[in-house]
Amino acid sequence: MTEPLLRVRDLKTYFVTEQGSGTARAVDGVSFEVQPGETLGIVGESGCGKTVTSLSILRLIPEPPGHIRPGSVIEFEGRNLLTLEPRELRAIRGNQIAMIFQEPMTSLNPVFTVGDQIAEAAIVHQGLSRRVARTRAIDMLRLVGIADPEERVDHYPHQMSGGMRQRVMIGMALVCHPKLLIADEPTTALDVTIQAQILELLDRLQAELGMAVMLITHDLGVVAGSADRVAVMYAGQVVEQAPTAALFARPLHPYTEGLLASVPRLDAPPAREHGRLHSIPGQVPAATAWPDGCRFHPRCPYAWERCRAEMPPLLDAGGEGEPGTHTVRCWLLTEPRRRTPHP
Amino acid sequence: MAAWLVRRLVASIAIVFAVVTITFFVVRLAHGTPCGPAGERPLPPDVCERQRVQFGYDQPLLVQYGKYLVALRHGELGESFGLHRPVADALADAIPNTFTLALAALLVDFALGLALGIYQAVRAGRFGDVAVGNVALLVNSMPVFWLGLVLLLVFAQWLRWFPAGGIHNPILCPRLLSPYCLLDFLWHLVLPALTLGLVGAAGTARYQRAAMLEVIRQEYVRTARAKGLRERRVLLVHALRNALLPIITLFGLAFPFLFTGAVLIETVFAWPGMGRLAVNAIFQRDYPVVTGAAVLTTTMVVLGNLIADVLYAVVDPRIRVQRGGRGGGGGSV
Fold first, then answer.
1. For A30, A67, A249, A284, which has the most beta carbons within 10 A of its beta carbon?
2. Residues of chain B contacting A99 with CB distance shorter than 8 Å
């Protein structure tokens, strides 16, 4: 195995809640790796900690109220980002690791032209002159598929549609050719047709620029089309991690199973439950009070005593590839015959 | 933009006209006559009568009003009967002094207010923020003239760092233009400008803190950080430019505050500006001067608001692009 580009180990990002009623353990011991050039999908419901995970990597968590616990490790090319000086961290932000966000409407600064906003990172990191950086900004606009880039470069965000703004965001993130792009729900706020365009664009740019992508989404369809590997998050933890094909063919965690069952399918009309779409009962518990034992057990159809008492570790599920390729945080792996739902 | 500007100008002229009318009539409702308040240094009745005829005060009030408006169209403000000179001349002498004072105070107000507000927002909830906030509240609740008197007492009377009043050294610099006299003038300017500016800055800081706190939470500020910008650039370029929008409204509102404040401050510091001129004229029932000062002050306040509206367009591209799309009012952003 090659040296990973990014290695996150036992990441814990906690928030002190305002009333002092407790600590929200938004991310609670997350580990994963991103290899150079690959796409890792991170999937989960709202509130499972996927956005906090992505913000933690570039240390963009507002402190206070948030803080990353000591003992967490985020290694990028062998350097722990959590112990870097501010100056060293700035040299990585926007240069080696770039980020795009969910809301293209609010993620761009309304009072600067898109050209200036794209050029800025190139000026700061590569010391380009304003004129050269402007040319670079026009190139980026062309690269992300915006028509009339020479004219658009002087436009303000409010003069553009949502899809175009997200293209601008992507252009802004890629202007320094980062090795890793963190895309936090890049298509959630967009129309479905635009979503497909943006994902295609990301795929194309990834191939052209040879970067790795961390794709954070709640949409399994997005992951199926784009990701090489998937990490499923639930309640601040990774509950299942596998190559995309393996995960879709053989989901082992009951939560992953539930997620897949709740995706509408055209080829197999849902016959169960009188044609209604499957849904996972209950909701994600509050981050201030995760359940004891397995955090999914209150919603799990298979749960038994052990699940209530003991938190399962990430267990190797075997399958194709080296050990550790497909891991699952579930006691079912030790007792597979219990995989029959309670009445 | 052009059509919008014309609309705004028409509205501004209407406001000035309304203020002229109201001032013209209200000042005449006041007790006393130009011959002096009743009982105080009474003039002989025949002198009084001669003056009334000379200045046209024997005619019906509406006729006087009509004549005043006609003269105003030519920029004439009438003849002061207390100062024995045209009102326009008296105002022309006074206005540069008030303007300098207001401008200096504005500078203190916004330079200090913005700096403190930004500092507070960055340290929100911590000791620095709370300390500055409390001091600002204290200063903001002081009456301007009282703060002026305290500063006078401390810095002019006790410490003798600054002069106690006036605009320049009457012996060395009565009219002389020289580097020394310029310094002398600035030296006289410090206390009144500081008094007026400090009270303004206390308010401005509160607004700036709120505006900045609002903006710091925005996602584009996070985007700026994710780009690898220095924290200083994130705050002073990406955040501040947005936080300035609500402050520009304040800038427009600062003008009336500065001019009314100047009335009191000019009296406290014996500053020969419009405020002092107007106050004296009111006591003497010098109608033309009172009305003239009101016209001029209104014009400047209205102009200040107009400047603020144009500044909006400069700072916020969203307003610039919508040509004439905005109503006449000062819409908030």
1. A30
2. 223, 226
